[in-house]
Design goal:
eight-stranded mixed sheet, about 45% helix, binds phosphoenolpyruvate, binds magnesium ion, about 750 residues
Length: about 750
C-alpha cells in the first residue's frame, strides 16, 4: 500500500503542478485542484478554505459541495470543524462529522449528507493560511497514510498560496503580503518613522515545491545535510571555549543534524512528491506548530533549535539567506525577531526605524536605538512572517503601532504626525543656547550620553553641556577583534577634539550581561546581569582595563580627562580601580608622555549597596554618576530586559525616589558631585522629579535634551517637590499622577 500510495501522491502532485502551469486565473486553478484531489483521494468532496482576514476563513473552492456556497460560506477561527482545524493547527479526522464536537450545519453547502470528514491545516512555517478538507458519504475514518498524503498536498497548497498562485478576480483571492496590516507592540524608543522594510533574516522563498525525481531530491537533501553537519561541527570547534549553555545548544544542533528520524521524515515527504526544500519546510512547519502549542520551556527551546537548523538547511538548499547581499532599501526600517547590540551597531545609524517581534526596553540594543534616536517598537507579533523586503512601513513610536503596507489614509495621518514632530523639534531648537533654568531659578546641567564617534556631531545641536556618559564598550562591540591601544587612543582623542573642550566622562569598559564580545571567552553564568561583568572583569583580568586607561591618558595629553568606573558595588573596588588609574599615570609620567591637565575619577552607582558605603567612599570619588538602568533593576529585583517584570515598577515609585533622595542628601552632606545618567533622565517628568529631589546634573540621549529643557524651564521645583511629598504622605505607590496634576497647574 505505501508504495502505491506514494505513487498516487506523486501522481497527484504532478497533476497539481500541471494545473499550476496551465496559465489559468487563480479561481480556475483552485477549482481544478479540488477536483484533482477529490478524484485522487476517491472522496465525494474536496474543499479549500483560505483566510479572508486574520479571523475569517472563506470557502474558496469546492468539489462536491454546492457551488453557490463558494465565496459565501465563511466561518471564524475556532468555529465549526474547519475553524477548529485552523485554530488548533491540527488535523481533524472523523467518521461521523455531524456528531463531532464543534460541527456546524451550513445549509448552503448541503453538507449534512457527508459523514466522514478530514481537515488538515494549510500552513507554511507556522503561519496558517487555510484548511484543506475532504469528505465522503461512507462512514469511515481516513487512514494515517491518507491523512499524510493530504498533509503533503496541503504543504504544496501553502507554497502556492504564498507565491500568489490563486490571486485573481475573485473577491477573496487577493494576494498575500499585499494587504495593509497593523501591529500593536510596545514602545522602546519614541518617534515616528516611515520607510521600507529590511528583514534582518530574509524569508526563504521556495519556488519548486513539487519534484518528479525523488532520488535526485534525496541526493540534494543528503548533500545539504552533509554541509549542515560540517558547519555545525565547525561551529562547535570554533566555540570550544563556549559556555556550557552555548555548548548545550550546539550539541542539540549536532544531535538534530544527525537525527535519523528527522532525515527519514523528510525522505518520506520527498517520496510522496515534494522537493527537498518543501520537505524541509513541511517538517519545520510542524515543529513551529508544536513550538507554539508547547508549554514545556525545554521542549520549546529544542524545537527552536530545530527551527533554526531547518532555516540553515533551507538556505543551503536554496542558496538564499542572510548573506544574499540584499541591498538596504531607501529609508530602511529593520524588521527582526530580535537583535543584539553588536548586530545593531553593524547596521549603523542609517536605519529609520526598528521593529522587533521580541526584544525589551531595557536591553542594550534598545539603548543603542535610543542613543541614535531611532524609533523602536518591540513585541510586534508575527511581523517577520508578514513583512517582505521593501514593503512600505510606518513606525509609530508614540503609540507602539506599526503599519505595514499602509493605505493612503494612514499615510496622510502619519505625514501630519511627522510634521508635528518636526515642529516640536524646531521649538526645542530655539532653546539650544538657553540654560535649563527653572522658574524658581535653579539651573540643571544637561549632558548627553554617547558611545560612538558618530554621536559627537549631535553635541552642539542638542544643546548639551558635555558628554555625561561615554559608553566605551560600544567601540568594542562593533569590532570582530580587540581594538589596539593606539587605535583607542586615537579615537578618544578624536572624541575630545569633537567635544571642543566640553567635558566627556569616559566610562571604562562595561561588558558582560547582554554586552557580549564575540572575541572574548564567554562565561558560563546562570545570571549574567549579576555576574562577572564591568569593573569585576576589569579588576580580575586587568590587561584590557590598563590598556584602556593608558589610551585615555594618552588621548588627553595636556587636556582635562574624566574617567568613571562602571558597576562599583563597594569601596574597595573603587580604590582598586583608582589604583590602576594612578599606576597608569605613573607609567606615562615615567615614559615622559604628556599627562592630562587635570583628572577627575568617578564611579557609577548602579547597585543599591553603594549608597550605603562608608563616608570615605564619597570622599574618595571625584564624582558619582547614578546608572539608573541597572540601579532600578537591582532595587526592584526586576530584570531590565524582561518586559513582564520591568514594567511593574515605575521609576517614580515612592520607595525608589526616597532612596534617591537619601543618596542625594548624602552626597550633598559629603560634598560629592552627583549626576544621573540612566535612560530615565531623558524622560521629562522623571527629569523634573530628579531635579526636585536635588539633582543638578543629568545625562541623556541627545534627542531628549530639548523636551527635558523645555519642561524644566516651565516648572517651579518647590511646587513639584510639594506634590511629590504629598503623594508620599498619602501613601501613593508612585508620585507620577500627583506630579502630572501639579504640572498641569
Ligand atoms: C545604567 O545602568 O543606567 C547605565 C547608564 O549603564 P548601561 O545602561 O550602559 O548599563
Ligand atoms: Mg549600567
Amino acid at each position: 500500500m505505501p508504495e502505491t500510495l506514494e505513487t498516487e501522491s506523486r501522481k497527484l502532485l504532478g497533476r497539481l503542478r500541471d494545473a499550476m502551469a496551465a496559465g489559468d486565473a487563480g479561481q480556475e486553478r483552485l477549482d481544478r485542484i479540488v477536483a484533482l484531489i477529490a478524484g485522487s483521494m476517491r472522496t465525494e468532496v474536496c474543499s479549500i478554505y483560505l483566510f479572508r482576514d486574520a479571523d475569517t476563513l472563506e470557502l474558496c473552492a469546492t468539489e462536491g459541495l454546492s457551488p453557490e456556497a463558494v465565496h459565501q460560506t465563511r466561518m471564524r477561527v475556532g468555529e465549526g470543524l474547519v475553524g477548529r482545524v485552523a485554530k488548533a493547527r491540527d488535523v481533524i479526522n472523523t467518521a461521523d462529522a455531524p456528531s463531532a464536537r464543534g460541527f456546524r450545519y451550513m445549509p448552503e453547502t448541503g453538507e449534512e449528507r457527508f459523514s466522514s470528514f478530514c481537515g488538515v491545516p494549510v500552513q507554511r512555517l507556522g503561519d496558517t493560511m487555510g484548511v484543506l478538507v475532504v469528505q465522503s458519504k461512507a462512514e469511515r475514518e481516513f487512514t494515517a497514510d491518507e491523512v499524510y498524503a493530504l498533509e503533503v498536498v496541503a504543504m504544496v497548497l501553502a507554497e502556492m498560496t504564498e507565491l500568489g498562485a490563486f490571486v485573481g478576480e475573485g473577491a477573496a483571492l487577493s494576494a498575500r503580503h499585499q494587504q495593509p496590516v497593523m501591529f500593536r507592540g510596545t514602545v522602546a524608543q519614541e518617534g515616528a518613522a516611515g520607510g521600507n522594510v529590511f528583514l534582518h533574516e530574509p524569508r526563504v522563498v521556495v519556488t519548486n515545491p513539487i519534484a518528479d525525481d525523488p532520488e535526485s531530491e534525496k541526493a540534494r537533501l543528503s548533500e545539504a545535510i552533509d554541509t549542515l553537519r560540517l558547519s555545525v561541527d565547525q561551529m562547535l570547534a570554533r566555540n570550544s571555549a563556549a559556555s556550557a549553555d552555548q555548548k548545550d545548544v550546539l550539541e542539540a544542533y549536532r544531535m538534530f543534524a544527525n537525527s535519523r528520524s528527522w532525515l527519514k521524515r523528510m525522505e518520506d515527504d520527498i517520496d510522496n512528491g515534494l522537493s527537498a526544500e518543501a520537505a524541509v519546510e513541511k517538517e519545520q512547519s510542524l515543529a513551529r506548530t508544536r513550538m507554539a502549542q508547547s508549554k514545556d520551556a525545554y521542549l520549546r527551546d529544542r524545537l527552536h533549535d530545530l527551527d533554526d537548523l531547518s532555516n540553515r538547511l533551507l538556505r543551503i538548499l536554496t542558496g538564499q539567506g542572510g548573506d544574499t547581499g540584499a541591498e538596504l532599501p531607501e529609508n530602511p526600517v529593520l524588521v527582526a525577531r530580535n537583535i543584539g547590540p553588536g548586530e545593531l551597531l553593524d547596521y549603523g545609524k542609517v536605519l529609520r526605524g526598528i521593529v522587533l517581534e521580541e526584544g525589551s526596553v531595557g536591553s542594550h540594543a534598545a539603548v543603542v536605538a535610543r542613543a541614535w534616536a531611532i524609533p523602536l517598537v518591540i513585541h510586534a507579533k508575527n511581523i517577520t512572517t508578514e513583512a517582505l523586503n521593501g514593503d512600505p512601513i510606518l513606525v509609530d513610536g508614540e503609540q507602539g503601532i506599526v503599519h505595514l503596507r499602509p493605505d493612503d489614509t494612514v499615510r496622510s495621518a502619519f505625514r501630519d504626525k511627522i510634521a508635528m514632530q518636526a515642529a516640536a523639534q524646531e521649538r526645542y531648537a530655539s532653546l539650544v543656547d538657553q540654560p535649563a533654568t527653572t522658574r524658581c531659578g535653579q539651573t540643571v546641567a544637561l549632558n548627553m550620553n554617547a558611545g560612538l564617534m558618530a554621536d559627537l556631531p549631535s553635541l552642539p545641536s542638542s544643546g548639551a553641556e558635555g558628554v555625561g556618559l561615554f559608553r566605551t564598550e560600544l567601540q568594542f562591540l562593533i569590532r570582530n577583534q580587540m581594538p589596539r591601544r593606539a587605535e583607542l587612543s586615537a579615537l578618544y582623542a578624536r572624541v575630545m577634539d569633537a567635544a571642543g573642550g566640553k567635558r566627556v566622562a569616559f566610562r571604562t569598559l562595561d561588558i558582560g550581561s547582554d554586552k557580549v564580545l564575540t572575541y572574548m571567552k564567554p562565561n558560563d553564568e546562570p545570571n549574567p546581569a549579576m555576574g562577572w561583568r564591568a569593573i569585576r572583569v576589569g579588576l580580575d583580568k586587568p590587561g584590557v582595563l590598563r590598556m584602556q586607561l593608558q589610551a585615555l591618558i594618552r588621548a588627553a595629553a595636556g587636556r582635562p580627562l574624566t574617567v568613571m568606573f562602571p558597576f562599583i558595588a563597594q569601596l574597595q573596588e573603587f580604590r582598586d580601580a583608582r589604583a590602576e588609574f594612578d599606576k597608569a599615570m605613573d607609567r606615562e609620567r615615567r615614559l615622559g608622555h604628556p599627562l592630562p591637565e587635570a583628572v577627575e575619577v568617578g564611579a557609577m552607582l548602579e547597585t543599591p549597596s553603594l549608597a550605603f558605603a562608608p563616608d570615605q567612599f564619597f570622599q574618595d570619588v571625584d564624582f558619582l554618576s547614578i546608572g539608573g538602568n541597572d540601579l532600578k533593576q537591582f532595587f526592584f529585583a526586576a530584570d531590565r530586559e524582561n518586559e513582564r517584570v520591568r514594567r511593574r515598577y515605575d521609576t517614580l515609585n515612592v520607595s525608589f525616589l526616597s532612596f534617591l533622595e537619601q543618596l542625594i542628601a548624602r552626597c550633598a552632606a559629603l560634598g560629592t558631585p552627583v549626576s544621573f545618567c540612566g535612560e530615565d533622565a531623558g524622560r521629562p517628568i522623571e527629569a523634573v522629579c530628579f531635579a526636585a529631589l536635588g539633582l543638578r546634573a543629568l545625562s541623556m540621549r541627545p534627542a531628549s535634551i530639548g523636551p527635558v529643557k523645555h519642561l524644566l524651564r516651565q516648572v517651579d521645583l518647590g511646587a513639584v517637590k510639594a506634590a511629590m511629598d504629598a503623594a508620599r504622605a498619602r501613601g501613593d505607590q508612585s508620585v507620577r499622577h500627583a506630579v502630572i496634576e501639579a504640572l498641569r497647574g
